[in-house]
Design a protein that fits this description.
By secondary structure, this protein is an alpha/beta fold. It has 2 domains: about 160 residues, Response regulator (Rossmann fold, 3-Layer(aba) Sandwich), CATH 3.40.50.2300; about 100 residues, Orthogonal Bundle (Arc Repressor Mutant, subunit A), CATH 1.10.10.10. Helices cover about 35% and strands about 20% of the residues. It contains 9 helices and 12 strands. The strands form 3 sheets. Strands 2-1-3-4-5 form a 5-stranded parallel sheet, with helices on both faces. Helix 7 packs across helix 9. The longest helix is centred in the middle third of the chain and has 17 residues.
């Protein structure tokens, strides 16, 4: 029933960073202005196979000042994003065909657009799987609409805070350009997945500083050890080494600090 979702509390939209859509066969981050520069409301793409749910969310979120687009399934969402930018996606997990987790995996290969998963499954294992797959938050149905509005607001604020520094970072054979999201190692361009790129930029911005896994979860994933396994950081650090290190077993830049976490060696 539509009434189970309640009513949104009135809140003001905050300026957030605009995430763009896909080019040449995949969704990727484009060079677009932030919403603070363009002074426009956040744009949310609702991906759900249930017509009534999409209609409800469009009505309620529009009342909050958001611009709402809709897609009934994953392929339609990808096609929509190829031409229309989105600041955040609300994605139902239990969709026929390509489910929400599959769509999330496809997005995360090339984009760090914020994603909140919506699901009727309250099992902790499902929530952990969603967060480990790259979701920014996970909301269980039925939900209070005030809670959903608060979670959307929080995710959008975190996305704004993730905006990378503009200056280029150079460490011998390693060059990092946060603005263009480009990495060069020994003269060759290296394509990094969004989360590995954010991890590299964060650590390289404070060379020599030791970060615990919990600190990296908080700063890069905007999560915590209570919500997400710190082993997530270990796995992404391993993948990052494979991308940029000449010998991943004897890393030059991404150093393990035993019993604590990691540091970037300049």
């Amino acid at each position: 029933m539509l009434t189970k979702y309640g009513a949104f509390r009135s809140q003001k939209n905050r300026p957030i960073r605009a995430y763009a859509a896909a080019q040449a066969g995949g969704v990727t981050l484009a060079n677009v202005e932030s919403t603070s520069q363009r002074d426009r409301p956040a744009r949310i793409l609702v991906v759900d196979d249930d017509d009534a749910t999409r209609t409800l969310l469009r009505r309620l979120l529009s009342m909050e000042g958001y611009v709402i687009d809709e897609a009934p399934d994953g392929p339609s969402a990808i096609e929509h994003l190829s031409t229309v930018p989105a600041d955040l996606l609300l994605v139902d997990v239990m969709m026929p065909g390509q489910d929400g987790l599959d769509l999330l995996a496809q997005l995360r290969r090339t984009s760090d657009v914020p994603v909140i998963l919506l699901t009727a499954k309250a099992d902790e294992g499902d929530r952990v799987l969603g967060l480990r797959s790259g979701a920014d938050d996970y909301v269980v149905k039925p939900f209070f609409t005030a809670e959903l509005a608060a979670r959307i607001d929080a995710v959008l604020r975190r996305a704004e805070h993730r905006r990378p520094a503009a200056s280029k970072l150079e460490f011998g054979d390693l060059e990092i350009n946060p603005s263009s999201r480009q990495v060069t190692v020994r003269g060759s361009a290296v394509e990094l997945p969004p989360r590995e790129f954010e991890l590299l930029v964060f650590m390289a911005s404070s060379p020599g500083q030791v970060f615990s896994r919990e600190q990296l979860l908080a700063e890069v994933w905007r999560s915590s050890g209570e919500r997400q396994d710190p082993g997530t950081v270990t796995e992404h650090a391993r993948r990052l080494r494979q991308h940029i290190e000449a010998d991943a077993d004897r890393p030059r830049w991404i150093k393990t600090v035993r019993g604590i976490g990691y540091r970037f060696e300049p």
